[in-house]
Amino acid sequence: xxxxxxxxxxxxEIWGNSKKAVQRTDNPDNVAYxxxxxxxxxxxKGVRVKNRGVANMVxxxxxxxxxDYSDCILQFANYVFDAFVWELAVSLLAGAELVLIxxxxxxxxxxxxxxxxxxxxxxxxxxxxxxxxxxxxxxxVLTTGGSASNPEVVRKATNNRKYINAYxxxxxxxxxxxxxxxxxxxxxxxxxxxxxxxNVKAYVIQGDRLCGLEMPxxxxxxxxxxxxxxxxxxxxxxxxFSTNPYGEGRLYHTGDLVRxxxxxxLEYLGRIDxxxxxxxxxxxxxxxxxxxxxxxxxxxxxxxxxVDKSGEKNLFAYLISDKKLDVHDIRLVAMxxxxxxxxxxxxxxxxxxxxxxSGKPDKVTLEEYYR
Length: 371
Known about the structure:
Layout: E1 31-37, E2 45-50, H1 51-65, E3 72-75, H2 83-90, E4 97-100, H3 103-107, H4 109-118, E5 123-126, H5 128-133, E6 141-144, H6 151-157, E7 163-167, E8 177-180, E9 195-196, E10 200-206, E11 209-210, E12 217-223, E13 229-230, H7 234-240, E14 241-243, E15 250-260, E16 266-271, E17 276-278, E18 281-283, H8 285-293, E19 300-307, E20 313-320, H9 327-335, E21 346-349, H10 363-370
Parallel strand pairs: 3-4, 5-6, 6-7, 20-21
Antiparallel strand pairs: 1-2, 2-13, 7-8, 8-9, 10-11, 10-12, 12-15, 14-15, 15-16, 17-18, 19-20
């Protein structure tokens, strides 16, 4: 039951020359949609996103991606994920074409490569681990998001006209920052998440103070993209969204650990609530991943904290490469950058990283490789 006026488009009377104007009830701060996300907590919550945030994202994408009517954008994401909102905004809401694809094609890499080529896809957003398995090239813009990018992704992406590493929580209307690779420039060992997008402000906070260059802290976001809050969860909303003490409006606390780089980009360091504790030492898994990526031949790596067969909790390194790796040599390279307590007890080479439906490494399947 609702008292919202209903316009029946099949009624021929509404198509006459009626002088009665339809009253507009929407405004920038009305809720455009509610989308459920579990984030890193595993507990679903409905994020209420405003019209203002969607409009801001559409304008940003049209400008940054130079979208026009000739572009074909792939709908890779399931419609229940906020990446679909990105695909909708950069296509239909910006005057381009949205190309649908079935899950069977997505799960068959060769079919996927052929589909992208035959459909003339010019812009797409893919999980970085998935993109590494593909053979697509020549895109107008390739964007990766949903999990951390790495140098191998950037090297592969140079086959396209533009590569963007996108970052953003659902609570900031899909996107918050972006890093655009400048062709022919050096690729950093740790790929930044970049600079704030249009009308977004980013703060790096440690306790109640702002962090200087290269000081790690929590990323907090303000600006036009902020959601209204969580549906029917006032306590959770009040915890995640606060009054902005550094400017206008509210502040969203992402729970992500970052730092400012000297060039004005943000570097993602991991989740504040995902530090692992091994034999009494607190460890950021992303630091361990970056050390292994410096080893010759390593295309990608996933670090997990698992209980081994002896019942002890240890770090596991899963490596991807096109050739057979010498685990001893790889360990020596990592040991030059990591203290002993941060070294994984187990290093395994696998063919490819298994992914969940949301495009993130599948921890359950990875654990089975060891078992």
